[in-house]
Amino acid sequence: MKNAKTMALSFERTIAASPNEVYDGWLNPKVPGTPWHEYDDLILNVKKNGLYYWLTNGNVHYGRFLELKRGKKIRLTWMSRYTLGEESTVTLTFKKVSEGTLMTLTHSDLPKDEKAKAHEGGWNYFMDRIVEHYAKKNLRRKN
What is the CA radius of gyration of the chain? Predict the structure, then answer.
């Protein structure tokens, strides 16, 4: 679905943890700040071509993992009613920077539609929460 009728949203956060920690945390449902942490029902099979089903607040999301490179990259498909039933792609990259990890999330192949634009609020919410999680974790380590 890569044509003029699609759009991409990108987000960046610097997280006070190593790329491997952030990568592992993003895939762990026990870590606040990941989509998998807040759910009503969850099936999560983290492996190449592994499937996920995520139900939260009455909204179903599902897809499969396309690429998993620890500490470097996660790429998965993403479908929900907010993608109008079309398959979109979420790519996360993790880059070491002096303050920790620069995590970039790009959600591409989204239909140009107001519902799809709602992902902006969702991804900002999760990314802010994961930054907060690691900041609190670092404070606990220092105390």
Answer: 15
Beta pairing partners, 13: 103
Q: Helix, strand or coil for residue 141?
A: helix
CA 78 to chain centre: 10
Residues 117 and 62: their CA atoms lie apart, in Å, by: 18
How does 42-73 read in b/e, with b if 16+ C-beta sit within 10 Å?
Answer: bebeeeeeeebebebeeeebebbbbebeeeeb
Tokens 């303050």 -> residue: 99
Residues 95-138 pLDDT 10s: 999 989 999 999 999 999 998 898 999 999 999 999 999 998 87
pTM of the model: 0.92
- H/E run at residue 115: helix 114-117
Non-local CB neighbours of 54 within 8 Å, separated by 6+ positions: 35, 36, 39, 41, 42, 43, 44, 60, 61, 62
Q: What distance in Å separates the CA atoms of residue 66 and residue 62, rounded to the nearest whole number?
A: 13
